[in-house]
Design brief:
The chain has 322 residues and is α/β, with parallel strands linked by helices. The chain has a domain at 113-205. It is built from 15 helices and five strands. The chain has a five-stranded mixed β-sheet with strand order 3-2-1-4-5. Helix 12 links the parallel strand 4 and strand 5. The protein is globular and about 60 Å long. The N and C termini lie far apart (43 Å).
């Protein structure tokens, strides 16, 4: 059952309720997961229209599933249904919005903000690291992710320094990548100070959980000071009162309540859109996309999505930063 709304209480005046769900979310664990893209869908749609949309999907797909997921519409035999759902004559143009995060890029931007000189250094690492180091680069990203995560585990800065040392041992020669890794190797005191700060107030100080920037973008897209947004979101334990209190200063935020995607067709539809968007965006990121499907996703993709690969960013219609 949906629970009570979370801070702050919805305003006395009219508010706009937006249904939301995500795909590819594993908390602050961004590397070493089954997905390399996080997607958060927000829908401005009424209960009746969402129910009609789900009923039409059932009529077209004819699956006995009690709750429809992205996998139902991503099968090749249901391509016409996917075209209908996301196409210009379907139910979603102007009513749906998807915020995307390239997880590897997100980790590098946070690491560079903490230990280096921000986005330009993250772009260099992102551009040069994978080709230079292969699988060992993934180990470096995991160590960076562990440094940034709230999870209390011993010797996290030491592990990042150890892996950075391995990269430097295998460096082929001088250059910008080696220079940045050398700089990282000299930041252990800063990394240890960050860990102490992070664990001092884990909820408020979290820096790498993708849900909070996703919620911020919902407010940016749909809310105004005169028409705040109340978010109906599929249940996520990380969306606690303490976490959401960080948004209480925004006039666009009218509150959040948890909703069940099984009983609220708006949230079920948001879940389906988020899952489809994540798969299509990941295919584009990894060079295996079908152009027609990327074209379907493009009108819904948030231009301010956090994305590092310029080629796929251009195809998706978002601002790449690497």
């Amino acid at each position: 059952m949906p629970d009570a709304r979370t801070v702050p209480d919805p305003p006395a005046g009219p508010a706009l309720e937006i249904a939301c769900d995500e795909s590819g979310y594993e908390g602050e664990r961004l590397i070493g997961t089954t997905t390399d893209v996080f997607a958060h869908a927000s829908l401005r749609i009424g209960h009746d229209d969402a129910t009609a949309c789900i009923l039409e999907l059932r009529r077209r797909i004819r699956s006995p599933a009690t709750e429809y997921k992205a996998g139902n519409i991503l099968r090749a035999k249901h391509r016409a249904t996917l075209r209908w759902l996301l196409g210009r004559d379907g139910p979603l143009p102007g009513a749906a919005h998807v915020f995307l995060i390239d997880k590897r890029w997100y980790v590098l931007t946070k690491l560079a903000d903490l230990l280096l000189e921000g986005a330009p250094d993250a772009a260099t690492l992102h551009r040069l690291g994978p080709a230079a180091y292969g699988d060992l680069w993934e180990t470096f990203l995991e160590a960076a992710n562990d440094l940034l995560r709230v999870k209390d585990q011993p010797d996290v800065p030491e592990e990042l320094m150890r892996v950075t040392g391995l990269l430097l041992e295998r460096a082929s020669g001088p250059g910008p990548l080696r220079d940045l890794l050398t700089a990282v190797a000299q930041t252990r005191p800063k990394a240890e100070l960050f860990r102490a700060w992070l664990l001092g107030d884990p909820v408020t100080n979290s820096v790498v959980d993708p849900l909070l920037p996703a919620i911020e973008r919902v407010l940016d897209r749909w809310g105004t000071a005169d028409r705040p947004v109340v978010i109906a979101h599929h249940r996520q334990t990380t969306l606690s009162e303490q976490r959401l209190a960080q948004l209480s200063g925004r006039a666009e935020f009218g509150g959040l309540r948890h909703a069940d995607s099984f009983t609220d067709m708006r949230v079920q539809l948001a879940d389906l859109v988020a899952g489809a968007a994540r798969k299509l965006a990941a295919d584009e990121l990894n060079g295996r996309a079908e152009p027609e499907l990327t074209d379907l996703l493009r009108p819904y993709a948030d231009p301010a999505s956090i994305w590092g690969d310029q080629r796929s960013a251009e195809r998706l219609g978002i601002r790449g930063t690497a």
